[in-house]
Amino acid sequence: MGLRTGKVRRIDEGPFVEKSVRTVLIPGIGYGRNAKIFNDNGMSVTGIEISKTAIDMAAKHYGTDMLIHHGSVTDMPFDNNHYDGIFCYALIHLLDSGEREKLIRDCYNQLSENGYMVFTVISKEAPTYGQGTLISKDRYEMFGGVRMFFYDRASIHAEFDQVGLFEIAELTENYPFFLIKCKKV
What we know:
The chain has 185 residues and is of the alpha/beta class. Helices cover 23% and strands 36% of the residues. Strands 1-10-11-6-5-2-3-4 form an eight-stranded mixed sheet. It has a three-stranded antiparallel sheet with strand order 7-8-9, with no helix packed on it.
């Protein structure tokens, strides 16, 4: 499978619906906004969230059908399940290099054979790149304590090539992101 690159306008359920994914893990699920599209397509969603307030909001908006583990993604795994899909939206770039490496490895280890992982990461094209206090290469502290790592294609390859990277797409929502797709074979 060759590496595909390109641009996308929005994040969609992509390979998850196309490949009949049944179970999805969402590290950093927040209040569940990113789970809705998967639930609406009949997938069983499990989340991980550090904020108890966000978990309570998810239960209020989406009911109790969705299992959400209370804790940090840096403490994964929370169960022994394998998932057909893992969706990690705008989270990994908030972690340091060791935590990013562990999250990718932990996600890959919980992925079923032929399962898909989709990550979104902030790009160096963001206007905030280079702002704030430099902590380490391409990582800055800004916004009153938020630490953020900014990705380019080289750093994506460095972190994701070993976990079945097959597509990198550019995506612009509030900020320029990369959409990263991996498959476990």
